[in-house]
Amino acid sequence: MSELGSYAIALALAAALWAVVASIIGATRKRDDFVRSAEGAVYAMTLAVCVAAGSLLTLLMTGDFSVAYVADYTSKSLAIPYRIAAMWAGQGGSLLLWAWFSAILAAVIVVQNRRKNWEIAPYAVTTFAVVTGLFVGLVLFVESPFKLLPAPVADGQGLNPLLQNPLQIIHPLALYGGYILYTVPFALTISALVAGPSKGPWVKVATRWNAYSWIALTAGIILGARWAYAELGWGGYWGWDPVENASLLPWLTGTALLHTTLTHWKTGRLRVLGFVMVITTFILCLFGTFLTRSGVISSVHAFGESGLGPIMGAAIFIILLVSGGLLVWRLPMLRAPKSDAQGHGWVGQRALAVLMIALTVAVLWGTMYPLFLRVLRNQEISVTPEFFRAVCTPLGVAVLAIFAVSPFLPGQTVANQRREAVVRGVVAAVTFVGLYALSSWQNPGVALVLTISLLALMSVARKLWQRVGSAWSSSADSRVLAALRASGPYVAHVGLIVMLAAVTLNASLQQEGRVTLKVGDTATVAGQTVKVLDLNAAQLAESTAFVARVALIGRDGGTMAVISTEQDQFTSTGETHANVGIHVRPTEDIYVVLEAADTGTKEVTLNVFTNPAVLWIWMGGLVMAIGGLLFVLPKRIGAPRMALETLHEDEDEDEPEPEHDQELVEA
To answer: What is the reported pTM?
Structure first.
């Protein structure tokens, strides 16, 4: 089975190379036979990668410990779902996963294009084949998961305990999906730059696939934060780790891309910025892969050192150079001859784009600065989370402020702006004073951010009501779908506002304490009263599990909840892993970590955190993703929604769905 996987990968690389050559010849010489040959090569590439991926999954599930990758990441005692998840636990498997997803996506694009005969498709095939071929080549020559051991072993090392969590089955797939789906808008943009930009339907297609990518990446980031919160035992969910930042960067530029692309459609404004954002977002997806797998940074999320760094770095540089060259070449054609300088939300639109770019630059600089110093001066430093909070917090508040003041920006329609200003002023004053008083006059910054958040929600709610009502009344059929689609961007904005407000509360009001107690003792720590009920130890196959049951005592002296917190001590490595006990309430999480345990003295050391508003962080992320899903709903039940087919129906239209696509622009 390992030989089958290796041969399939070699065949996939050969097919990818021929797809590049044939598609270029077919496009430049107008040879339909070569274009069809390139499409056939894409199918062959996809089939070969599917065979390779199937081979690896079979090896993992059957436990073939003659294969090094299987021995490194699985064991006989590992459950089947985690054996499958082992595919993306290591370098070779995760690269194969990327190649697999990319190849399937390339085949989908080719299938849809055959029905519509899209003229820039050969260039898109070239781009897809290059991207897929890059990862297939890395699997074949650098990090193959099919390498055999000199001699089979009786059992494997097993999967890292941190990865044995259901979220680690879903979270990486969502992130990979987000990264790889951005290949579609990138490929279409590069194709349009080569063939000549126009107001063709490729913009609609790219925007819809960008929305799919954004939804997947949003879900991946939120699920990853939830995993870190539950598994790492440090009381937080986002530590500004370089790998965390690597996933945030394309999300920031992808968010800006959603808005700038729609502006391009409607008015011709921000057209160049839209192209730049497409290229930047895809480059940042590759950069995240480079950062995670090159070994240049140390992170709990990163893979170990490997030979991928120079190759990935060179590939990113070449793609950036080619993309930038095409952009400069076509710059005169990208500039709109007469763009509409006015229109709904144009000031807020530009301000939002500037803020997203500023956030991207800030996060990128903070992430890369230690690497620059290491290379240029041989100095080892680390950028602390305080830097990111100091730089990114005011930019995040500015995003909220844009929502809050949006009714008063040029291009907005408010019946009576003076009355609106008075109402909002009164609401702001009452809210700020009330929240400041509730904090015992201790947290004016928190009160200010929450006040701005309330005003932002008022703005979004008003626009949501207007747009849903307009969609309902103007739709001849499928009114419910029209209303849901129209609500999508505003629902996403509500989720963002809720999440930012919750993060502010959590970061500002979190309490932490450490205490050592014996069984039966009670103490107050981090604003919570805890009592250790009992401590037990269980000898497992690979570890000793210490489990403490802790009662949370309410203000009335009664038991509010009983939670279990566990520490696993692994016999072979001496490492420890905490299974956190969390009591979730609407206002706060009580988070208890068993740091140390002694069954002889019946003594435990607990880290206790009071984490305000954490539930609303997850709820805000969920609402954001739901908003994205609503935005991409079909016009009618049963309508085909494959992007290149449905969005290509009206090839001569310059204005796509005016009531629907204006939503993001107005924000």
So the answer is: 0.90
What are the tens digits of pLDDT across the range 558-604?
A: 999 999 999 988 776 667 888 899 999 999 999 999 999 988 899 99
| Run of H or E residues at 197 | none
DSSP class of residue 37 equals H
Query: How far is Cα 515 from Cα 517, in angstroms, rounded to an integer?
Result: 6
In sequence order, what DSSP letters do the residues of 146-180 get, joined into one string? TPBPSS--SS-----GGG-STHHHHHHHHHHHHHH
Q: What is the rounded distance in angstroms from the CA atom of residue 375 to the CA atom of residue 396? A: 31
Q: Which residue's structure tokens are 């995670």?
A: 292
Interatomic CA distance for residues 565 and 263, integer angstroms: 51
Q: Which residues of 85-110 are buried (b: 16+ CB within 10 A; e: fewer)?
A: bbbbbbbbbbbbbbbbbbbbbbbebb
Our measurement of the distance from residue 171's CA atom to the centroid of its chain's CA atoms, rounded to an integer in Å, reads 9
- Residues 540 and 636 grouped into a single domain: no
State whether 554 and 588 are in the same domain.
yes
- Number of structural domains, the chain? 3
Q: Are residues 135 and 31 in the same domain?
A: yes
Residues 367-376: contacts with CB within 8 Å, 24+ apart? 367/242, 367/245, 367/246, 367/249, 367/291, 370/297, 371/296, 371/297
pLDDT for 12-33, tens place per residue? 999 999 999 999 999 888 888 8
Place of tokens 């992430």: 367
Question: What CA–CA distance (Å, rounded) separates 123 from 202?
Answer: 13
Distance CA 431, CA 447 (A): 8
**108 within 8 A of 212, measured Cβ to Cβ:** no
